[in-house]
Amino acid sequence: MASNFSLLLLFFVFAGTFLETEGKLTPTFYSSKCPKALSIVQEEVVAAIKNETRIGASLLRLHFHDCFVNGCDASVLLDDTSSFLGGPSWKVRLGRRDSTTASRSAANTSIPPPTSNISSLISNFAAQNLSLRDLVALSGSHTIGLARCTLFRSRIYNESTIDAAFAKSLQGSCPRSGNDDNLASLDLQTPKHFDNLYYKNLLKAKGLLHSDQELFNGTSSADKLVKIYANNTFAFFKHFAKAMVNMGNIKPLTGSQGEIRTNCRKVN
Ligand code: HEM
Ligand SMILES: *[C@@H]1O[C@H](CO)[C@@H](O)[C@H](O)[C@H]1NC(C)=O
Ligand SMILES: *[C@@H]1O[C@H](CO)[C@@H](O)[C@H](O)[C@H]1NC(C)=O
Ligand SMILES: *[C@@H]1O[C@H](CO)[C@@H](O)[C@H](O)[C@H]1NC(C)=O
Ligand SMILES: *[C@@H]1O[C@H](CO)[C@@H](O)[C@H](O)[C@H]1NC(C)=O
Ligand SMILES: *[C@@H]1O[C@H](CO)[C@@H](O)[C@H](O)[C@H]1NC(C)=O
Ligand SMILES: *[C@@H]1O[C@H](CO)[C@@H](O)[C@H](O)[C@H]1NC(C)=O
Ligand SMILES: *[C@@H]1O[C@H](CO)[C@@H](O)[C@H](O)[C@H]1NC(C)=O
């Protein structure tokens, strides 16, 4: 009887190993092998955001950049980061392993620049198997965080698709030359709250980046989605959560692929 039970246990251990090497991400990946993993990550992230609010925005953006360059493979454990700032939450799929390489040129070509037009944005996201809906919902991340003057300068001096008073209000801290690193909020209204005001800004030609405003210009294919999210926070949160899962599923390394770095900044 006892040996049968041991055999049964042994079977589950092997089955567990087999499932693991089969390589699927799952929200319960650490439940038995490291049950405190998520609460430890959560505590650390809460403490970091308490110390410096922008860390929430930085982590969100880091996850985007990680995923768009050869898949989400730096094991960034984003445990519902945005929910600490209010906003949507989703079950993060776990079991990611770390890459053993990094590519500057892949980073340069895969991450869309803020000068992108809507057709480039669509094709850039499509190359990651992300839809127009994913693009518009994920861009809602710009409801928090900051951008540097050098990245929106030409927009506030040279573009016609921008609210004139809004452009003027930014020119004080972002002169025609110099002060490249001066910062402005991506969402001028509530820069620290995860809400749908980013989309309301776009309807009023108050997107900070050229790429933001490309999502709503009166005739763009994204216009309809911007209108929906501007009107309906629930729809935005729902689509954002789904899109984050889609983005997080870009080519993760699982099973025995890659490695688990002992020092995050170095290949073992
Ligand atoms: C659609 C294409 C996108 C473009 C062209 C774009 C571009 C940018 C740029 C230029 C900045 C300012 C960076 C700086 O000043 O150095 C920024 C900030 C930010 N982006 Fe995006 N982004 C895009 C999509 C996304 C996505 C998909 C996410 C997350 C899911 C995201 C999250 C953020 C966040 C949170 C910040 C603020 C970071 C901070 O304050 O530290 N962005 N983005
Ligand atoms: C708190 O934030 C500051 C930047 O605002 C940073 O230099 C410091 O390392 C942070 N401290 C902790 C404990 O995270
Ligand atoms: C990537 O872009 C940076 C900044 O524009 C540039 O300095 C660097 O040379 C580029 N590297 C590659 C490999 O394309
Ligand atoms: C969008 O940008 C791409 C890349 O810069 C360019 O080739 C294309 O002509 C632009 N499309 C439109 C409609 O402006
Ligand atoms: C997108 O989907 C295709 C077909 O399933 C797949 O071959 C490709 O690797 C996927 N690309 C990414 C970036 O996940
Ligand atoms: C605005 O456009 C003009 C003409 O194309 C150019 O000379 C100038 O450098 C641009 N200014 C900014 C701030 O981008
Ligand atoms: C809006 O975007 C569409 C799609 O790229 C483009 O054809 C159109 O010219 C743009 N309209 C304005 C006013 O910029
Ligand atoms: C705006 O949202 C409400 C529900 O929040 C919905 O009843 C209404 O149809 C929406 N209007 C538009 C134009 O999407």
UniProtKB/TrEMBL annotation:
Q: Which reaction does it catalyse?
A: 2 a phenolic donor + H2O2 = 2 a phenolic radical donor + 2 H2O
Give the disulfide map: C67-C72, C149-C174
Q: Which residues bind substrate?
A: P112
Q: Which GO terms describe its biological process?
A: hydrogen peroxide catabolic process; response to oxidative stress
- MF term (GO), any: heme binding
The lineage's top-level taxon is: Eukaryota
**Binding-site residues for heme b, renumbered to this chain:** H142
Q: Provide the residue positions that the database annotates as binding Ca(2+) 1.
A: D66, V69, G71, D73, S75
Parts forming coiled coils: none
Q: Which Pfam families match?
A: peroxidase
Tell me its family.
Answer: Belongs to the peroxidase family. Ascorbate peroxidase subfamily.
Return the protein name: peroxidase
